[in-house]
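hiii so my PI (J.) wants the whole complex modelled not just the main chain, which honestly fair. so below is everything: two entries, each one labled with what it is. i double checked the lines twice but i was tired so who knows lol
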Amino acid sequence: MVETQTKPKLKEHRINRAWCKGCGICVAFCPKQVLELDDQDKAVAARPEDCIACKLCELRCPDLAIEIITE
Amino acid sequence: MAVKDFIRERFFPHIWCPGCGHGIVLNSLLRAVESLGMSKNEIVMVSGIGCSSRISGYLDFHTLHTIHGRALAFATGVKLSRPELNLIVPMGDGDALAIGGNHFIHAARRNIDLTAIVMNNRIYGMTGGQFSPLSGCGVMATTAPFATVDAGFDVVELARAAGATFVARSTAYHVQQLTKLLRDAILHEGFSVVEVLTQCPTYFGRRNKMGGAVEMLKWFKENTTPVGSKAKAENPALIERGIFVQKEMPEYCKAYDQVIERAQKGKK
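here's the output for the full assembly
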């Protein structure tokens, strides 16, 4: 039997709005353009269905404001 | 342990400006420590003064927030008295190489087991954007309204020449590499230096018309290359990143233990 490695699947983007300063780094470097800044300049997951859970947003956030929760 | 267990949440959101590269270094450092599986009690952070040095206040290790440029001197004292602890010394470019320039080269010369992180944003951010010894030539700063004429230090070459036994460089854009380099530096026995190119959108970026945090990170992506790459041979202006020095030399605390042993011989 071939062992298949399952990719992590997104459960949710946990964004701490009190810590997010709206620098836009996560939005600019998301490889799938999942994130956007809302009218209050806070990051939101506008297209979570496109997320591949690569966690680059989480790793690059200078404010530790974003966390990718996987299943 | 989760990354959040290593921070003092009551001090968040932190003081740094939106898009500040120092936050990304904090983020990478947390992940490096997490991957090492160390307990918080095994780590001591010693920092000096400046935006970058605020990092020690946000981390829930043993932390010392000391005086400008002298973080390495304090760290040397801690390490000599408690050599079993892991010392991490985050510094800014001015803190490490202007005010603390002498401490930096002598800590490297001694090869004492400390991990020095030079968070190089090429400017004094906290005091309002004065140029630093790492700004380099042709840079606009509050104290150089018609651009600097000073050449900058090359941290890697300086650390190598002073005797550091682990020298590496990365940027705030290359977070995965940065986490790995910080991990390697902490594990290395001897004086380790990791230079991190970080963005200061507020002073360096704005004065030098480099755009905001996103544009500055793109600049790191486009103007750096892995050490020894073909791209560097074709374009010498590219900044190399990776591990430059990794060698074994006698470590200072161990050598000092031998002195104590010699001195006590025959007296017990």
